[in-house]
Design brief:
This protein has 101 residues and is mainly alpha-helical. 64% of the residues lie in helices and 0% in strands. The longest helix is centred in the N-terminal third of the chain and has 21 residues, at 5-25. The radius of gyration is 31 Å and the shape is elongated.
Amino acid sequence: MATTLEELEKRLIALEQELAKLRDKVEPPPDPKPWWWDIPMLREARAQQAAISAAVAEAYEKMGITGPPVGPEKLKEMMLASNIDPNDNAFTREILAMREE
């Protein structure tokens, strides 16, 4: 059975109309936020983020900290230039000693 162009056109229009009806019935996609998004402590932190950022910026300004953070490679170079062994764990040892007191 040969299908004419007119029949194909009618079937295509009917299909497009049916598709439009189905699209209207589809629920909107789920909220893309992760499961932890609505944890009360995190929700409160997000609400206070502007104040926290302002306080950090003020503290950095008072301490004279400017510019972007230094990466680990650059930090290691700076430590070596200041005769500090980057592999030394003196800081950790002191913290452990304080815990034992």
